[in-house]
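Hey everyone, long-time lurker, first post.

I ran two proteins through the pipeline my lab uses and got sequence/structure pairs for each. Pasting them in order. The first:
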Amino acid sequence: MWSPTGPPIPSDRAPVSSNPVRPHEFLSSGDGIDPIGLESVSLLYPGRRRTSRRDRNRTPPASCDHAALHDVTLRFPRSSFTGVVGPSGAGKTSLLRLLTGTISPTTGMVHRAPGLTIGYVPQVEQIDWSFPVSVADVALMGCRPPAHPWPWQARSDRAAAREMLGHLGLAGLGDRHIRDLSGGQQQRVFIARALLQGAELLVLDEPTSGVDVATRHDLLHRLGDLNRDRGITIVVSTHDLNGLAAHLPRLICLNRTVVAVGTPSDVLVPPVLEATYGAPMAVLEHAGIPVVVDHGGQRWTG
């Protein structure tokens, strides 16, 4: 389980450091330097071969690495808003963890612009909600540690946290325990923490999982406002093709490798969807937005 203090960084893995020379070369674009990119990245998780019970008693099982991602090359343009879609086990969360630096690639390079600040919003299902922390406490974790030796934040930091929570529709909830909020409100608290960090790149893992339609629309609009008004680069993983992915400006279809990258109209098409999900799907259009359905006529939610 993850605590609301932030994503765990495994003790045996150091965050990926930026290459001192090549990031400028790889990340250069017509608009300047992109904030982050992956170059020929593969990721293996250690595993063990399956053996029968009889063989298990005779010889130790041989090791077998599991390929979470293979030969992934991606760039995330500055101020872009990108969704990552794919089936369960496709490597979406692994990709996000590579972006945030909590794991390192087995091969390839993760390039970051110098001084890039990254904010992370985890899946609400993976957080230990018994952790004794208030809404304001979580938001304040985004502020820099106080310069003084006393264990409290400066008045200016507390004021900044109140202002940010109010901006995200959470005014007056600072003293509440974070577990007492709705799923959408909890997501906004973590977004407030990331913004108080001064995040230039905001990474969200399944932010609409388990929330209702109204909450999903509200979160999508707030993220769109942050992307448009503040120029924050946003990367979000999702299973929700119709409710979220179809409304984003840019999508990455992932199934351990990159299947396609483009606008929803470019990639939410039957050949790409079948290559991504391994099943035939039909695509309709409503008000200029693609709607994915399976062959039984059901809207696809991943």
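...and the second, right after it:
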Amino acid sequence: MRVKQSEMSIAAAAFLLSGTGLALLNATAFRAGSGPRPDLVATALAALIASVAILVAGRRFSRAAAGTLMVLVLVVVVPSVTRVPSELRAVNLGLLFLPFFLFLVWFLPMWFARLLGYVWIGLYAVIMLGRFGIEISTVVLTIGVTGVVIGELVGRFKGRLERTSLTDPLCDVWNKRGFERVLGSTVTAAERGGQPLALLVIDLDGFKRVNDELGHGAGDALLRGFARQMAGRTRPEDVFARFGGDEFALLLIGVDQHEAVRTAERLQREITDPAWSYGVAEWAPGETPAAFVERADLLMLRAKRDGRGERGARVRPAERDPGTAERDSGTVERAAGTLDG
């Protein structure tokens, strides 16, 4: 059966396989002196085994495992500078800093990349200066500065890419992908801390007519204006996102069902242009983020179907028979209809 790979698993395996090849070459064809190098053979074997294990794990190769692997690489490679027979071999080991640091920057948190990267280059510099004297300082400085500058630039580029991929460029709020990432971590925190969460799924009324009659420019302006109004009337800790088209979501952290309904009613009184419909759901313990969003979305669709001023509610599971209660979400749910635009 073919194992699905992630970019991180492929990059880690490639890094280790290249290390395997270099270690074997230094132990055989490029061996300095006549004596055997069992340390290099052992290093090559360990790197080969680790690379195979990573490829077997595939997508299951986690960031925590990658971080642990990079710590081990640092522990093995940097001290080996003390055992190389010449300055040239020591410089070659120093050049491994660049792919090491780039892997950390691209796949792991920036604080962790900086910690390991700067520890690597700092230890390497101390060992090199201690073994070969001040004459080698220019080479060490070049390796260090080049690696750090490239790594930091890649880190900034990565951060910009992540922000772009997680935000909606039109409304300058979270997009659906970014919202799902935040929702996942928020649900995990709620499971640990027991705090309530409520979700509004929002849909603008008559948006298609605006696009058809006034053009997409007017539609875009309407979306931007609505996003600005919502951002100005919600709390900093709330999470507002555009799912696409004229559909939005508002995650209310630390807010239960009834308070969420009051918040939605207040927002509808304050934001009347454009008119909009919403569905409200409170997160139920054990519920997945996807199911949570789906419940609120279905209630929003019910609100649009029922029309202006209509509301629907579900009783709590405790008010039903035990078998039904186990299947239900355990919260009251409502959907409010459309106000006049």
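Reply from user beta_strand_b:
Welcome! Quick read of the second one: The beta strands are 167-168, 173-174, 197-204, 239-244, 247-253, 276-282, 311-313, 334-336. The CA atoms of residues 105 and 111 lie 9 Å apart.
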